[in-house]
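BUG: 3D viewer hangs when loading the predicted structure for this chain

Environment: internal workstation, default settings.
Expected: structure renders.
Actual: progress bar stalls at 90%.

Input used:
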Amino acid sequence: MNANSSNQVAKNIRRIGFFIVLFYLFIVLIMKVLEANNFFGYSLSSFSSDIFAPPSLKHLCGTDRLGRDVCLRTLQGSSIALEVVFLAIFFALIFGLPLGLLSGYFGGVIDKYLSLVMDTIFSIPVILLSVVVAFVLGKGIINASIALCIVYSPQYFRLIRNQTILIKSETYIEAARVSGADFKTIIFKYIFPNVITPLPILLTLNAADAVLVLGSLGFLGLGVPADVPEWGSDLNLALAALPTGIWWTALYPGLAMFFLVLGLSFIGEK
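Structure tokens produced before the viewer hung:
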């Protein structure tokens, strides 16, 4: 396969990823509008007498052990997943990016201690660190986002720091210093636009990973509150029913998580 064919394949994969993520965003928008207008007439977490009802015209994806509609909870879980992942990546970016710029530009003691802290955090396994932070902070959308933020911040720090170290030695940076430009002008006008080019790929890959980590936190009961529809917690509830042949309570949340991770990963395809 030649280079042109490889590039075309990569573009097609990214295009598929964009369509998948846009579909999830469309679902979230539709659900928000319907909920705001009380279209369903009840809460998505409300109970009914149809316990473990199989998929049917009344309940397209069946119901769980509490009588809640699996389809509606799975669709609502898309909103929670995208919200937490967006907040987590946003917090990690605004935290890791400026620290990476400062560390790479000034070097010395600042770089030494920041690198030590970030490398220590980076060396801890993602699941272990997120579980510990989520346990300390407690359940909640913001707390789950902060837990994921702490996990991913070192990656942005390391990327931006290394890029800054490379770029600050370029001749045009030296020319800016000689011309009398202060460090803020050099960092934000000359260095910043050149160090952010690799960020989109890392953003999408981290977002895909964050969906899985959030699901893991929910599965362990450390994500969002129990009354909030979330894929990981729904999979945890479905685990006990699987040996009895109740497959639908695990299938649909699992597929929803799988396709969102797939779409985000496809967008990051080089």
